[in-house]
Every structure is written in structure tokens, then in C-alpha cells.
């Protein structure tokens, strides 16, 4: 949230040098995380191949799961930066797969292959544009699910899983859960659509916008949890001088 506020201040004050520096720092942090995860995966995969180390093979597979959301975020940021929209993309998504940047996201033992008891995470994704009625998300929209157990100090080490929306914005995923325990689950999604805002002259206009939603819940082992993902505008991109959310 603090980064979101800082980015908005940079935009409103026209402080472009600091703004670009902040974007570059975020990208550098993401690249470092990708590098560390990739090196860990290659190291453990080599141990499995050369020495038959099964534990190393499991660690390599976990590292590959952690890499997937990071690589997706890199692609989005790289394309947006090339088009001059990197700042708006970060505003729209910083609390999400940008959990790569703002949350501790590591592979854990909470996988379906390791645990016999499962919990179901499901729900619907909708767009809630200003000035018009809500509507269901399109088929194939990415929904990112972060889940983990609290330790004795209340901290959570998150694992990550990504699924896509089906008809009417529905999504569903199964995650492993230790017997008698509960999981801290955070679901996030983002999309692009039109929404009403105010232009530089104070006139109401409909413009392209990034939409975002995040919902967190505690889910008991073996139970299903429903997440109503109502995405609201988080940044307008249509033209200069628009009133931002």
C-alpha cells in the first residue's frame, strides 16, 4: 500500500526521474528473485540427476512452482515498460503477483502430491466498473492463489498456485492441507476493461482501466471456501489527466 501511495504522488507531482528509478528498482528486485529461484531449481535438479537425490528433486519441483508467477509478472512488466505503462501496471497489480515484491512467497510442502487431505478454493470473478453494471470476467483470466500456514509467531510462508476462470467467471483450485490445521489463503486477480472517471476538465468520461481484487480468508483443512472476487478500477490508462482511483 505504501508503494501504491508513493507511485501516485510521483505521478501527480510529475517527478518522472524518481518515478522511473522506483520502477527500475522493482524490476531489479523481481529479476533477483527469479535468478535465485532458478539457481536453486537447477542446483537441486542436478543433484537428482547425478546422485539420485529424491529430496533434491522435490525441492527442484517446488522451486519451479515458485518461478511460474514470477515469470508471468516479468512478462507483464517488461511489455508495459516498453509501452510506457509500467507505472500504471505496478499500481494495478502491486498487491498481487507482485506478491513477488511485497510478500514472502516460497514453495512449501503444501502440495497435493505431499498431503492426502485437500481444501478447495473457488469463487467467481466480476468487473465492477464505475457508472455501469457489474459483469462476469472473461474465460481464461488468471487467478492467483497464495496459501500457507501461520508459524508460532503468526508469520506465513506462502506457496503459490495459478488457475484460470471458466464460464461466468468461475474458478476452482485444490490445495493440500495438513490434517487438523488451517490455511491462510489470499486470492488475487486483475483485468482490463472500461470504467467511468473524470477527465482534466472535470467531465465524466468512460476510459480504459486496470481492475484489481484481492480477498483473504482462513480455510480449515478439508473444507471448501468461496471467494467473491469483485474487481474495481485501480488505474486509468486511456489518456492524460484522468482522475485516478
Please tell me about this protein's structure.
This protein is α+β, with helices and mostly antiparallel strands and 245 residues long. It folds into two domains: 1-107, no CATH class; 108-245, Immunoglobulin-like, CATH 2.60.40. Helix content is 36%, strand content 32%. It is built from five helices and eight strands; from the N terminus they run αααααββββββββ. The protein has helices at residues 2-13, 16-51, 54-82, 86-93, 99-102; strands at residues 118-127, 135-136, 142-148, 159-164, 170-176, 182-198, 204-220, 224-236. Strands 1, 2, 3, 4, 5, 6, 7 and 8 form an eight-stranded mixed sheet that branches. The longest helix is centred in the N-terminal third of the chain and has 36 residues, at 16-51. It is globular, with a radius of gyration of 20 Å. The relative contact order is 0.14. Mean pLDDT is 76; it is low at 1-19 and 85-115.
Q: Which CATH top level class of the largest domain fits? A: Mainly Beta
**First CA to last CA: what distance?**
13 Å
Instruction: Please give the radius of gyration in angstroms.
Output: 20 Å
What's the CATH topology name of the largest domain? Answer: Immunoglobulin-like
Helix content class: 25-40%
Tell me the structural class: alpha+beta
Instruction: Please give the count of helices.
Output: 5
The CATH architecture of the largest domain can be given as Sandwich
Number of strands: 8
- SSE order: HHHHHEEEEEEEE
The total number of structural domains is 2
| Largest sheet features | 8 strands, mixed
Query: Percent of residues in beta strands?
Result: 25-35%
Low-confidence stretches: 1-19, 85-115
Query: pLDDT average, as an integer?
Result: 76
Amino acid at each position: 500500500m505504501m508503494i501504491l501511495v508513493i507511485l501516485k504522488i510521483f505521478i501527480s507531482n510529475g517527478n518522472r526521474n524518481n518515478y522511473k528509478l522506483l520502477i527500475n528498482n522493482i524490476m531489479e528486485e523481481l529479476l533477483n528473485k527469479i535468478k535465485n529461484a532458478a539457481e536453486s531449481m537447477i542446483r537441486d535438479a542436478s543433484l537428482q540427476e547425478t546422485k539420485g537425490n529424491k529430496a533434491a528433486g522435490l525441492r527442484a519441483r517446488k522451486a519451479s512452482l515458485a518461478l511460474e508467477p514470477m515469470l508471468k509478472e516479468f512478462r507483464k512488466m517488461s511489455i508495459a515498460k516498453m509501452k510506457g505503462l509500467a507505472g500504471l501496471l505496478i499500481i494495478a497489480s502491486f498487491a498481487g503477483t507482485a506478491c513477488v515484491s511485497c510478500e514472502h512467497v516460497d514453495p512449501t510442502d503444501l502440495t497435493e502430491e505431499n498431503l492426502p487431505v485437500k481444501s478447495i478454493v473457488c469463487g467467481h470473478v466480476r468487473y465492477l466498473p464505475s457508472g455501469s453494471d457489474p459483469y462476469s470476467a472473461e474465460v481464461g483470466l488468471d487467478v492467483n492463489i497464495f496459501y500457507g500456514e501461520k508459524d508460532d509467531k503468526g508469520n506465513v510462508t506462502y506457496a503459490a498456485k495459478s488457475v484460470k476462470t471458466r464460464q461466468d467467471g468461475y474458478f476452482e483450485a485444490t490445495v493440500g492441507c495438513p490434517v487438523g490445521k488451517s490455511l491462510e489463503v489470499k486470492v488475487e486477480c486483475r483485468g482490463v476493461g472500461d470504467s467511468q472517471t473524470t477527465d482534466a476538465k472535470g467531465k465524466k468520461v468512460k476510459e480504459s482501466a486496470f481492475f484489481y481484487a484481492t480477498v483473504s480468508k482462513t480455510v480449515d483443512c478439508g473444507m471448501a471456501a468461496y471467494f467473491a472476487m469483485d474487481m474495481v478500477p485501480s488505474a486509468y490508462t486511456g489518456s492524460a489527466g484522468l482522475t485516478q482511483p
